[in-house]
Write a structure and sequence with these properties.
The chain is of the alpha/beta class. It is globular and about 65 Å long. The strands form two sheets. Strands 1, 4, 5, 6, 7, 8, 9 and 10 form an eight-stranded mixed β-sheet that branches.
């Protein structure tokens, strides 16, 4: 397995790094790019000026454009076929391609696979919300065999996987060679992804039953993960609990 990294480093020095697009031997468009109009957002006059920081993977101007725009272009969902891929230490190597997924290891035995579809990414392995909204949704794409690089590090993952009818435990891979590895760019909120959201939603409804249209849910963040503190949250929750729902219809 270490030879894959050595080979990749030599090729990269000679040819430069590869992207998924340049490293793929074939590409399959699952859903084309889509342009969608949406209502103008509602916010107070000085709210946008209070935005001073963003997540490390983005910038403040990009986040402001995302929340204030009236039109969104959803990128295509594309499956990239990567030939003769090697998975080691949470990273995928093929030619000059280095595709990092996770620094965490599960100590699974090496495997040799003919064809497999990757349903994990760097963000699904780092953020629970991305595992839930991206990984569990990508799991629904047709695949001969699914693999997840690295362990699922979230305490609530088992309950959600059971609710969605998904098996995440047996597909964990730390070390493998894959003749045809399919890596799907599936981050855009296009119609394909929305249909898969609806499938997962229907499974939740089938388990817990439908809710009244007037039902409201406040999601309170716990003490785990990155802190996102809300000023006066206790007072806010108290006000919501005592609110007259007639004004929320």
């Amino acid at each position: 397995m270490p030879l894959a990294r050595l080979k990749r480093n030599i090729l990269r020095a000679l040819l430069g790094p590869a992207s998924l697009e340049s490293a793929s031997v074939a590409q399959e468009i699952i859903c084309p790019s889509e342009r969608v109009a949406h209502p103008r957002p509602i916010y107070m006059n000085d709210q946008i000026d209070r935005i001073v920081a963003s997540i490390p993977e983005s910038t403040v101007p990009a986040q402001i454009r995302a929340v204030t725009g009236v039109e969104t272009v959803h990128d295509a969902t594309i499956a990239y076929h990567i030939a003769d891929a090697t998975i080691i230490d949470g990273t995928i190597y093929s030619g000059t391609l280095r595709y990092f997924i996770s620094s965490q290891q599960s100590r699974t035995p090496p495997r040799s696979l003919e064809c497999a579809s990757l349903i994990s990414s760097m963000v699904t392995q780092k953020y629970f919300a991305h595992w839930l909204a991206d990984g569990c949704v990508q799991y629904l794409l047709p695949a001969q065999a699914r693999i997840n690089v690295g362990p699922i590090p979230y305490p609530d993952a088992t309950a959600y996987a059971e609710l969605f009818g998904q098996d995440w435990k047996s597909i964990v891979v730390d070390s493998a060679t894959v003749k045809n590895l399919i890596i799907t760019a599936d981050y855009a909120q296009n119609s394909s992804k929305r249909r898969r959201y609806e499938i997962l939603h229907s499974r939740i409804v089938n388990t817990f039953g439908p809710k009244e249209k007037t039902s409201l849910v406040y999601l309170r963040r716990g003490n785990t993960g990155a802190a996102r503190l809300i000023d006066n949250e206790a007072s806010l929750i108290e006000a919501l609990v005592g609110a007259d729902l007639r004004y929320w219809k």
